[in-house]
From TrEMBL:
It comes from the Bacteria. Gene3D superfamilies: alpha/beta hydrolase. Residues 1-326 form the Acetyl xylan esterase domain. Pfam families: AXE1. InterPro entries: AB_hydrolase_fold (IPR029058), AXE1_dom (IPR008391), CE7 (IPR039069). This is Acetylxylan esterase.
Length: 348
């Protein structure tokens, strides 16, 4: 698939105005306050995985409405129990669950603690499944989660999943051997959209790693692509022809650019310019406007891959994330600075 979105020179200047709904901040403040009334951790149980260099715990924490959410918590086996490590909270892509604990160990191998959150009501499309049901399925929509409760923000699936993601950060800070001041949000695709939402809702996050984020530049994405999961919205609206106005209002409450505006953490982005699943203009809109309303100038950089699609830079991008994150957490590349630009749209 050839490049189909804006040319790179225009993407680098793409700073769209976002039709932000009245009450956006109040909506998320009240949602998170309600979820925060319950203690986050429910259970933490070590499991045998057959891995000698990694220890893993099966964690259950309370997410949206106090619902139990499952996660894998892993640490390098050689790290002392009292040694506090930075923690990477990783969010999985659309249709995936947490799978099996040995599937995703990049951050543990880099020396970090890692919490891999399950996606409520997902896990049946890729990987090795999930373990967290979504009990709030009364609102119409489906069959994919992208349209569940789409007519009202209070009922929308992503209100619940984003709340789970924020609560995952709270939960990992209460686990033994984690440095609560050095918690990182990371994810690709849907996971990238969740990580970006967390960055906008958790003001003291240490860093953000996001590739090919879903839920960014949603209005433009709906005009550009029929690929799932955006295509699920188009299909839904082709049947429910009277729902477009309500659907667009609901989606404005989970717009990634709105979260990016409020984010403060140092951020590392990646994007494939041939991505027809999450069009690159969404990632650039979030990147270009990142931190504008935070009262700071967060350090940020973005890496574009002209011949890659939704996989982005794949292992090359992960290598860049590893090196960048080590520098940020070691204090050699974090904090805030005045923006500047250079080759590859890296903003130091």
């Amino acid at each position: 698939m050839p490049a189909f979105d804006l040319p790179l020179t225009e993407l680098e200047r793409h700073r769209p105005d976002i039709a932000e709904p009245a009450g956006f901040d109040a909506f998320w403040r009240s949602t998170l306050e309600e979820a925060g009334r319950a203690e986050p951790l429910v259970s933490v149980r070590e499991v045998e995985t057959g891995l000698r260099l990694t220890r893993t715990w099966d964690v259950t924490f309370r997410g949206f409405a106090g619902d139990p959410v499952r996660a894998w918590f892993s640490r390098p086996a050689g790290a002392g129990a009292t040694h506090s490590l930075p923690a990477v909270v990783e969010f999985a892509g659309y249709g995936r669950g947490r799978g099996l604990p040995h599937e995703r160990l990049t951050w543990v191998n880099a020396g970090y603690a890692q919490l891999l959150m399950d996606n409520r009501g997902q896990g049946d499309q890729y990987g090795c499944g999930g373990d967290t049901p979504d009990p709030h399925t009364g609102a119409p929509g489906g069959p994919g989660v992208m349209t569940r409760g789409l007519r009202a923000p209070e009922d929308f699936y992503y209100r619940r999943l984003i709340t789970d993601a924020v609560r995952a950060v709270t939960a990992v800070r209460g686990l033994p051997g984690v440095d609560p001041a050095r918690v990182v949000a990371a994810g690709n695709s849907q996971g990238g959209g969740l990580a970006l939402a967390v960055a906008g809702l958790v003001p003291d996050l240490a860093a953000l790693l996001v590739t090919a984020p879903l839920l960014c530049g949603i209005r433009r994405a709906l005009d550009l692509t029929d690929a799932a999961p955006y295509g699920e919205i188009a299909t839904y609206l082709s049947v429910h022809r009277d729902a477009e106005r309500d659907a667009r209002r609901t989606l404005s409450f989970v717009e990634g650019v709105s979260f990016a505006l409020r984010a403060r953490a140092p951020a590392h982005f990646g994007v494939g310019l041939r991505d027809t699943v999450c069009p690159p203009s969404g990632a650039y809109a979030a990147f270009n406007r990142y931190g504008e309303r935070s009262g700071t100038t967060p350090r940020k950089e973005i890496h574009a891959y002209p011949f890659n699609g939704h996989e982005g830079g794949d292992a090359v991008q992960v290598r860049r994330q590893l090196l960048w994150l080590r520098a940020v957490l070691d204090g050699r590349g974090g904090g805030t600075c005045a923006p500047s630009s250079g080759p590859g749209r890296v903003t130091p």
